[in-house]
Amino acid sequence: MPEPAPSAPRRALHAIRQGAHRVDAATPASRDRAVDALRAFAILGVVLGHWLVTALVAEDGALRTASPLGPMPWLAPISWVFQTLAVFFLVGGHVATRGHASAAARGVPYGAWLRSRLTRLLRPVLALLVLWTVATTALLLTGAPFDTLHTLVKLALSPLWFLLVFAALTAATPLVARLNPLWPLAVVLHVDVLRFGLHAGPTWLGWVNLAAGWLVPYTLGAAWARGELDTRRAAWVLLLGGTTATAALVIGAGYPASMVGVPGATVSNLNPPTLAAVTFGVAQCGLALLVRDRLRRAMCRPLAWAAVALVNLSAMTIFLWHQTALMATTATALLAGRLPGLHTLPDGPGWVAARLVWLPVFTLVLALCWTAFRAHEQGARRRRPVSGARGRSTVVRVHRTADREAAPVVRRV
Q1: Is the pLDDT at 279 greater than 70, yes or no?
Q2: Bridge partner list, 154
Q3: What average pLDDT does the segment 77-90 reach?
Q4: Domain limits of the chain?
């Protein structure tokens, strides 16, 4: 008697496992998978953090931003978990330093190296700008309230500040690759002393920290690439030193406990970065370096590695479009009225519980955005047949990336 055909879910699961094993087998053995895992966790941490602490409240026919961190300051630990930008800059400094050294050894000019690094980073921005230019024009023509328009455009384009800073630091890699992280940390310290301690200096002075603050984890990544942070002792020094300094600044110096901005707050730790945000990032970098070995072991599992590879191949698409996914869900759901966790004021635990229910919906909408716009990040692909081991035709996917370490390269599928 013939065996029954496997069900559709079993077939799908089998196909996923087969694909994961092919990605695992096609990954070069020399690749440090912990680097990709850290990058993926950093991007997903930012996305989830924004979804959890960004509320679009419908009031008087318009939408405005609000945050549960204001009325519920006990939620500040959420920002400690999901404000992971320092880890992304750590990985960025590590990858750029290695990539530039490798390119220089091969005789690749600086301009060619930089162009290849920035192409994949900035290519997806064009699609975002085009869509929101069209959307803004349509909203203006239909008479949307200016406050709503300002709120939506500000949220949609807010990820661009990060890309501009990251692109600038990438371009400066030959100059900062051997810079001691204590130098930019000293700049942040002096700026904060002038801003908060002496109340002196112009108002724009704090924005010096936008470059200096993120240069700290970036140069830590460069030190990692040079092998200066390979020991667990170095990682523990960063973790314990950063944690102690952050606690002292929050408890003793009056810095905000939240590591992200809170609407209406006098001081934001992130806009521009404060000394507390930078020391907190140092602690995060120490933790990231401590878990490298565990991540490498975890990434030996094909399913885990395939998931991380997928996120890395679309990291900028996910980052750029996650706020649009939140806003599209919020605006569309307004047709059903004011829904809890989506349009209501984030003023209690009930809102938090309702927002958790909306996270899968945001994820689904982001997946639709990913499907529509991922080609702008991954670029053109071409397929060419080659001879397989048994004479069969094997499909080889050639994927051009900004850097050999910037995204996983799947050589054979």
Answers
A1: yes
A2: none
A3: 94
A4: 32-381
